[in-house]
Structure to design on (149 residues):
């Protein structure tokens, strides 16, 4: 199994933007939470409210809004325009996951809680270090073997 990393975000929207850009193409992103102020997400081409094998709901009670979108470079701006205003991505959206080529690459759970953000080792360590130096991440560290999914 690949190394995984725990991430501590300083700039939560900035982290999401960077990883969306790094992972776009042959990828999907899911948002779960109160999506009432992000209704346009449900109208995106290819949007689905169904879980996939990789992108699954993380809150079973009470059931929250859930949407899976294709993550392609040309769609990133439109997704961000829906989730960034008024801090929606960290207040209304509880869980964000990105899968690429059928593998979970990034997860931010419990409103980007500092103990609930992780990424796969397929995210280049150079990118993580650049995000730390630029102040997007406070820190990152390898996840212990027992924490791997």
């Amino acid at each position: 199994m690949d190394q995984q990393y725990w991430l501590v975000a300083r700039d939560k929207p900035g982290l999401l933007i960077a990883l969306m850009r790094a992972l776009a193409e042959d990828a999907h992103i899911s948002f779960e939470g109160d999506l009432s102020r992000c209704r346009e997400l449900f109208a995106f081409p290819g949007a689905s409210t169904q879980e996939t094998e990789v992108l699954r709901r993380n809150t079973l009670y009470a059931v929250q809004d859930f949407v899976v979108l294709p993550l392609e470079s040309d769609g990133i701006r439109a997704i961000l325009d829906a989730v960034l205003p008024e801090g929606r991505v960290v207040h209304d959206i509880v869980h964000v996951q990105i899968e690429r080529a059928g593998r979970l690459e990034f997860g931010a759970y419990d409103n980007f809680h500092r103990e609930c953000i992780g990424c796969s080792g397929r995210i280049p360590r150079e990118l993580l270090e650049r995000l730390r130096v630029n102040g997007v991440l406070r820190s990152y560290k390898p996840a212990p073997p027992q924490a791997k999914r």
About this structure: The first helix runs from residue 12 to 23.
